[in-house]
Every structure is written in structure tokens, then in C-alpha cells.
Amino acid sequence: MSARGPGGGNGRGREGQGQGANRGPKQGRSKGQGRPPVDQQRGRRQRTGLGGDRVEGRQAVRELLLAGTRPVREVVVAAGQNQTGALAQVMELAAELRVPVKEVARSKFESMAVTEAPQGVIARTVALAEHDLEELARPADGHPPFLLVLDGVTDPGNVGAALRTAECAGVTGAVLGRHRSAHITPAAAKAAAGAIEHLPMAVVPGIPNALARLAELGVWTVGLDVAAPTTVYEMNVAEEAVALVVGSEGRGLSRLSRQRCDVVAAIPLSGRLSSLNAAAAVAVGCFEITRLRQSAEKQ
Predict the structure, then answer these.
(1) DSSP string, 216-265
(2) Structural domain span for residue 215
(3) Are 29 and 83 in a shared domain?
(4) CA distance linking residue 186 with residue 159, whole number of Å
(5) Nearest to 74 by CA among 32, 103, 47
(6) Which CATH number fits the domain that encloses residue 220?
(7) Same domain, 110 and 172
(8) What does each of the 299 residues of the chain score in pLDDT, given as a tens digit?
(9) Can you list the positions of beta strands (E) in the chain?
(10) CATH of the domain at 100
(11) Residues 96, 154 within the same domain
(12) Phi-psi region for residue 107, left (φ > 0), alpha (ψ -120 to 50) or beta?
């Protein structure tokens, strides 16, 4: 599989096919090991840019209340709804947590909503806390980190759907670019269906530099690229600390991001279309890594 040698940065030249995926743990990537832990307050400090302070949709609001990871200021519901199912759970949780609930006329609610289908409920909360890249690169519950890096995905719906899939697949953290990338807008939060409450996220100035830093921290990076000579089904690094890197639908991975990935792999396509939706590509890549990890644990 196309890969890069150890060491990080631009000094890593391309090796022959099959080299990178068959190596053992990266001995040259322990640069970040042995360093004192990042201050927990620094790792979770509030910064502007990530968003998530407005959540719409029954599932997303229910998960927000269930998670209890951040204060909820208010829940707004449209009048005249049958309070059953997920909406009933939202109301019960809000009462239990003593979150103010405001019922407004349907017309007023629709004027307040940002997403196309808010399902009659909106929550106002504090913005999501950003995490540091170094924090995400640490083992989680004794297991190697499994990260998702979104390289220039600008559609909020795709970002949210990707985060929902990633959380279901066991991803332990996500990395977004500060610029030219969608963050956690109301549309992204709704599509994520609660995943943002459970998936720590880092926002970085540039994805290529973040990939270089992950290399220093001992994390393998696997980029999805339709033109790659090998496939995701040939990965041999999934059991290590790993980050799946997915680009936008239009241009895929950026040139620098592709160059800095240790492994570049394709998802084989059999139809007439030339590429997958970014969120669908995340699903295939994430669950293949999860399958490989689970298979290794059973051996």
C-alpha cells in the first residue's frame, strides 16, 4: 500500500507499494510520548468557531439533555403537537433537569427555526468545547485512538452525518479545519442526531499541519482517495492509533493533505458514478477500520 516512512513532516518520501501498511508500530513516532499531560482546562477551553449552541430536532435535543455534558438554557417547542415518543422524552428530561420550556405558536416557531425540519423542538445551549489535538491522540479507555479528520467538507449536513456515523463506528475524536470547513451549525447538529454530545472535536488552523502533528504523536493517517492504487480492504494499520482522513465531494483530499497521509486508499466502486458522498465514504472507511479492529481483538 502506498505509504510514507516514519518521522513526520515533508521529509517523508513515498515508498514502494505495500511498504507502509506492513510495518510494525512506528518506532520513530514517539516524539509526543512521555510528555506531561495537557492541562485539562486548556484541553476543553471554550473557543469561538466550533458552534453547537443551537440544536434542532427531537433526537438531537433528546441526546443533548441525556448526555448532560453542557448546560441547556432553554427548550422551545411548537404548540399543538402530540407529545409522544422522542418529544415526550424531551419534555420529561427538561422537567427533570429543570430546563425552562417555552411553548410558542407554530408560526412563530417556524420563523425561529433554522433547519428545514426542526420537528417542533429547538434547544439553546452553550457552545461545544474544543479539544486539543494532543488530547485526542491519547489512548481512550486503554485502546489506541481512532480519529476522523474532515478535510474541507463544507456541507453542514454531510459533516453532521459523518459525525453520527463516526460515533456509531467507535471513533474517539474528530478533527475539523478552522477555515473552509463547515462547523457545528444547527443543520450539522440535527444531522449528527446527538453524536456531537459524545464525540470530542478539535478545530485546527490547517489540516496538513494537523496531519504532520498526528504523525509526531504516533498516529497513522489513512486518506481516502478514489485514485489510490490500493483499497481500504487492504489496510494493515487499523489496529494502531489511526486517523481516517476524508476530503470534500468536489475535490477530495487537498494536495498537501494527500501528501502527508501515511496511507492513501480507495473505496472500490462498481457503478457508473465516479465518487461517493463524503458522509458515505466516512461510513465505509470507519466501519472497515472497526471491523479490522474487532477481528484483531478476537484473535
Answers:
(1) HTT-EEEEE-TT-SSBGGG-S-TTSSEEEEEEBTTTBS-HHHHHH-SEEE
(2) 20-37+129-298
(3) no
(4) 11
(5) 103
(6) 3.40.1280.10
(7) no
(8) 433 433 333 333 333 333 333 333 444 444 343 443 434 444 444 444 799 999 999 999 999 999 999 999 999 999 999 989 999 999 999 999 999 999 999 999 999 999 999 999 999 999 999 999 999 999 878 889 999 999 999 999 999 999 999 999 999 999 999 998 999 999 999 999 999 999 999 999 999 999 999 999 999 999 999 889 899 998 888 889 999 999 987 788 999 999 999 999 999 999 888 888 999 999 999 999 999 998 888 77
(9) 54-56, 72-78, 101-104, 121-125, 146-151, 173-177, 201-204, 220-224, 242-247, 263-265
(10) 3.30.1330.30
(11) no
(12) alpha
212 and 103 share one domain: no
CA distance 72 to 126: 7
C-alpha cell at 260: 502527508
Residues found in the chain? 299
